[in-house]
Task: inverse folding
């Protein structure tokens, strides 16, 4: 098998080849490390590459007995972890000079769960500083190195897109899994609020934060989600014990995802979610809707109540929650924060408690109203992002160091007039209501940049979201697209 | 008795920011108050809509985020 083919295997394929001893875990880790060596000087997805830990683990995994039952579903598969998530003996810097030199003493809960399933952690990926932004300096979009990967899980998305990991972990407060997944042409799932423990993850906004999988196929996202879900965690009180159905089926085949989708009720919320789309994004998503209909799904036009309040609620909640977390450090080491983040955190300290309370109460009402709408639907379908990846404002040297710390002038979007609000326009609502939301590739813009289709489901019904996404993926080839990195 | 002007009619000033920062115990860099005043005013333009929406029930759904989701669990 050619090296490139090896690097772009799905997790399901890689796990099957390991199980049959056609390849060894060390082959996969060596292929990842070689690929990172070749391409990451330009893409800059990784903050830390952990070959010294991953190679011995892979050799140990290769000595495990043959067969499938005693091995986890991710046995020997290299996974990348966003740099706000703790991995024992690896740096956790959150892309900030504030945490320079910080090394985690233990694994985050979801990392421990991934290891129990057999995963090998190949490194830490860049994030926007403390996950509070959408650019992720210094990471570049593998589809066009002059463009941003999105954020804040931009390093994870870029690593997957460039074939430098088989799966990855991201976090999502306003869209930080789905936005970079869409802009880099990969799959990202924000699970239901409370589905995955956040213990060992640096908070951005406690009532909006979610952790979830990123991958190159819907089946792989389902595999990772199953591995991450561990029920209630007393150290993350938001976690729920709701069981997750078996998604992967026997031998991680993904069989359970292939159940019939005919008759699934798909809401198409044109007001708000289809406003202001780049024309080629609109055309791509209309075609995706036609594919869903051709698979037997029933499309219905709907409107989501209160969605126009999204950014008002988001600001009133996210800003003070983030500022509360950073309050002490902002006084002790203010100059170590990047200018953009420091300004955001200062601003959050000036909000009134009453506005925060008003926003949480309206948010609870919004949640109730969305549940009523979803009583008549199985999923909602819309573009993940209204535009393709914007151009980056400056050179990597201007934007940050390898630790991701922002320096110099504030980043901006020269070709996106409404800035980051426009990028998060369609992703933020699902964080407010806590519903599961999947982004998967569905085409290319006129400029040849990936477009994401977002599917939002009912609380704790990731299975239906993934099943609808898998059916779309099986009927199209967009998830097999690769960026033009080799030249 | 005449009411004072509501905040809806009064843009945020640098003095407002200095006062809020003092209450929060937040040291401000020189020149920072003007920048923050503009940013806060922009956010408040949106947030005032939330104040207007949540003017109703004495005991609404509550402040615990996603309580219903958690009950489902």
Result:
């Amino acid at each position: 098998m050619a090296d490139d083919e090896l690097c772009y295997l799905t997790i399901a394929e890689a796990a099957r080849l390991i199980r049959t001893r056609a390849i060894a875990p060390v082959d996969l880790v060596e292929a990842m490390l070689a690929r990172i060596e070749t391409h990451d000087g330009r893409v800059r997805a990784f903050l830390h590459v952990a070959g010294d830990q991953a190679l011995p683990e892979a050799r140990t995994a290769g000595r495990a007995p043959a067969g499938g039952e005693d091995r986890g579903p991710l046995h020997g598969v290299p996974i990348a972890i966003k740099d706000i998530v703790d991995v024992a003996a690896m740096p956790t810097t959150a892309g900030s000079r504030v945490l320079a030199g910080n090394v985690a003493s233990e694994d985050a809960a979801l990392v421990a769960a991934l290891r129990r399933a057999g995963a090998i952690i190949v490194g830490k990926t860049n994030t926007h500083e403390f996950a509070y932004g959408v650019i992720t300096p210094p990471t570049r979009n593998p589809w066009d190195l002059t463009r941003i990967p999105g954020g804040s899980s931009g390093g994870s998305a870029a690593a997957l897109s460039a074939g430098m990991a088989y799966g990855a972990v991201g976090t999502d407060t306003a869209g930080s899994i789905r936005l970079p997944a869409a802009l880099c042409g990969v799959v990202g799932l924000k699970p239901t609020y409370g589905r995955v423990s956040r213990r060992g993850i640096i908070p951005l906004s406690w009532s909006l934060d979610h952790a979830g999988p990123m991958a190159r196929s819907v089946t792989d996202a389902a595999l990772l989600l199953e591995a991450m879900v561990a029920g209630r965690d007393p150290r993350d009180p938001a976690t729920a014990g709701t069981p997750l159905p078996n998604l992967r089926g026997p031998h991680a085949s993904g069989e359970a995802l292939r159940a019939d989708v005919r008759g699934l009720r798909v809401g198409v919320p044109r007001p708000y979610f289809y406003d202001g789309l780049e024309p080629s994004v609109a055309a791509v998503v209309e075609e995706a809707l036609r594919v869903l209909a051709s698979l037997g799904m029933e499309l219905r036009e709907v409107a989501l109540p209160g969605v126009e309040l999204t950014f008002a609620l988001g600001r009133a909640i996210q800003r003070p929650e983030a500022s509360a977390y950073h309050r002490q450090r902002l006084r002790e080491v203010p100059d170590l924060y990047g200018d953009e983040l420091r300004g955001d955190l200062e601003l959050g300290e000036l909000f009134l408690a009453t506005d925060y309370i008003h926003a949480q109460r309206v948010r609870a009402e919004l949640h109730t109203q969305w549940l009523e709408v979803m009583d008549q639907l199985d999923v909602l379908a819309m573009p993940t992002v209204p535009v393709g990846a914007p151009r980056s404002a400056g050179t990597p040297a201007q934007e940050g160091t390898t630790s991701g710390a922002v320096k110099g002038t504030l980043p901006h979007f020269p070709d996106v007039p409404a800035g980051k609000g426009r990028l998060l326009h369609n992703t933020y609502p699902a964080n407010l209501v806590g519903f599961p939301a999947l982004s998967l590739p569905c085409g290319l813009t006129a400029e040849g940049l990936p477009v994401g289709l977002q599917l939002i489901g009912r609380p704790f019904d990731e299975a239906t979201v993934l099943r609808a996404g898998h059916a779309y993926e099986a009927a199209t080839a967009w998830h097999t697209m690769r960026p033009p990195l080799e030249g | 008795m005449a009411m004072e002007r509501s905040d809806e009619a009064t843009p945020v000033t640098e003095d407002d920011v200095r006062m809020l920062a003092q209450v929060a115990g937040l040291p401000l860099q020189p020149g920072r108050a003007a920048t923050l005043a503009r940013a806060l005013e922009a956010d408040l333009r949106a947030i005032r809509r939330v104040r207007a929406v949540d003017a109703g029930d004495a005991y609404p759904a509550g402040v615990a985020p996603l309580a219903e989701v958690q009950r489902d669990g």
